[in-house]
Structures are given as structure tokens and as C-alpha cells.
Amino acid sequence: MLETLLGDLRFAGRMLRKSPVFTVVAIIVISLGSGAVTTIFSAMNAVVLRPLPGTSGGNRLVLFERRTPDFAEGVSGSYGYYRHVRDATRTLSGVAAWSKVSLSISTGGEGAAVYGNIVSGNYFSVLAVPPTINRFFAPDEDRIPLAKPVVVVSHSFWESHLGADSTVIGRSVSVNGHPFTLIGVAPAGFRGVFTPLKTEAWVPLMMQAQLRPGRDLTDAPWLWMFGRLERGATREAARRELAALTATWVDNTSEPAGYRKYASIRITDLTGLPDDARNAFLGFTALLLGAAGLVLLIASVNVASMLSARAVARRREMALRTARFYQHESCGKCTPCREGTNWTVKMLERVVRGEATPMDLDIVSSVQENIIGHCLCVLGDSMAMPVGAMVAKFRDEFEAAIEAARQPGPGEFDHSDVDRPLTTGAIGV
Description:
This protein has 429 residues and is α+β, with helices and mostly antiparallel strands. It has helices at 2-18, 20-49, 79-88, 123-127, 155-161, 208-211, 235-252, 257-260, 275-313, 315-329, 335-353, 358-371, 379-393, 395-406, 416-428, and strands at residues 61-67, 74-75, 92-106, 112-119, 133-134, 150-153, 172-175, 178-185, 201-204, 224-229, 264-269.
């Protein structure tokens, strides 16, 4: 089997080498089609299909948000609401909160403006993300406002701005002009909860007054929230519980009237995009994937058509190859098979060389008729039937090729007569 495969590969290589333009066009057409499909699906898989990169047990992570009863509008949660849900839930083993914040981090030289997150102290533990160096936030760093100014940086920031120096851990860095202690480095590849946004640093919620001065920490809705399902808990059970907790919160607090209508809960998988953006991205990429798939289909059909047309141009050669194979395999014990295969090969060689006449085609057909049914085994019939049918069905083309071969110079017929228009058509498509 290996020898057969190697023989087929050598033959394919020879055929492709004989038609370099055809080969290049076929490779480009198929590469563009398959490359587009692969690229689009890879982006879709990386952003919305697979669990959040860098986390453990990502299939149990869920994003939830308050919505109106018809789910048409949504609102973020306040810090007070987050604490209410975090302390009361039973279907979620942990609930974390976060929001985006612009940060400028400096280690003594020029500061670097980065996209950061301000997060609850259990942010990394709920995600089950392990630190690359040292540790993440401790419980006491998320209790008293402004008491513990600490910061965690991404692996890429640590490499590009801190020289991948592990001794920087524990040192003071400037964050938005305030001294913070660098306590840890996140693992490589972890980009935060919304992966299209490259998060470079994380700071505790309790530092909000320094990093977002003049804004309300407790009552204003400014936090995204996510949680990890308890083992055995379902998303629907978590949604019902969170909806009940939200209703209790609305009834028992002095929340502004404009926010009280957001009493329903939408819960979705945490995959790297918020649900609205995720649905829009899925729709858009599905459209692109369909278009790319159509391009790949057209490219494949186009190449198949080119190969079919080349096969048509090689009918004489294929008939000769068939006859040569059976000539080689013939045992020579019966005259019709022995002599018939020899004469068939001779006549077809004359056709391929351009030395034949229409009478040679008659001889080929007559030889095949004398072989069929007159041999001791089926070997002769196996050659005579396809060769005879090929000559009979495509006799007009054989005669046209013979006539073209008898014309001087420019009238000669070869594969390029088919390759050139086919290649031009392929480039056009």
C-alpha cells in the first residue's frame, strides 16, 4: 500500500510539474477559500465558543445582569446589590464584580497608559485563575476603602514594561499618581473577562475613590457581575434564585425609581463577550463564515472543473495507459488477449504521437470486439470494454486530434490548449 501511495504521489507531482500555471492557480484558489474559513472560525471559537481562556472549569462560569421584564434593556449593578447577591446566593459558589478603569502605571520613569479593571477581591478565585508570580488579592484588601493600595499586572505588561523581573514583586509603583504595591502577575494569555479588550492591570474595588474620584461606589450601577455555578446547579435554577434576590433588593432598598424596573435576570455563559455583543458577533461571523464557505465551494468546484477538463484533454493518453497496464499484466496464454493488447497499444501510441489515421481507430475498435468473450480470463475483457467504449463514444474528438496533429505547427493540440482558457477562467472566478 505504501508503494502504491508513493507511486501516486510521484505521478501527481509529475503532472503538476508539467502544468505550473494550473498548479499555482489551483493552490491559490483553494488556499484562499480554506484560509478564509479557518480564520473566521478560529476567531469565532476564540471569542465566543470556547470557555474563557486561562480559567479552570470555565463551563460553570456565568455572566448575569439585571434586565427589564421584556429583556430589552439592561443595567449594571451597584456595589450594594453585588454584596446582597454575593452573600445570599446558594446556587453560585462565588460571585465577583468588576468594572473598567483607565490606568497610568509608572515604576519611576515614564508612565504607561493601559486598560485596567477594578475588581472585587474574589475576582481571580471565582475565575480559578492561578497567579504566575506571588499572589492575587487577599480578603482584607477588599474590605476597607483606600486601606490596601495593591495592584496585579498582566504577564505581557510584566514582560514588556518590567523586564520580566521577578524582584519587582513587593515594590511600590505609581498608579494614576498614587503609590500602589505590586503583589502579583497574572498568567500568560489571560486578558480579563472580556477578551477582545487586553487588560493589563487589576486593582481592588476599595481603591475606587482614588481611581474614579467623585463617583458613587455604593448605590450607582457601575459593576459587571459573574459567578461560578455550584456543582449540580443549573443556569435556570441560578436565574430563578437571582431573580428572587433582585426582587427582594428592589422591595427592601431605597434604590432610585429609574432602576427598580430592572427586576428580571438574564444569565449567559461567560465566554469573553457580553451577551448582546456576543449575539451580534456570532451573527456577523456566521454571515462571514457562510460567505467564506461559499467561496471555498466555488473554488473547489472550479478546480474540479479544471481537472475534469484536463482529463478530457488526456483521453487518448488514458486509453493508452489502460492498454499498457493490461498488456503488462497479460499472461500471454490466449491469443486474443496477448495479440489484442499488443495491437491496441501500438495503435494508440500512433494516435498519441500524431501518426494515426481514422483507419487506426477502426482497427482499435475491431481488436476490442475480437477480444471480448474470447479470452480464458476476464483480463482481456477488462481492457477491451473501457478502451472500446472510449474510442466509440469520443471518436469525433479522437479524429479531431488526429486531424490537428497532421496540421503544421500552430494547429497542434496539446494540454495547454485546455489549460490556458481554464486557468484564465479560474482567475476570473
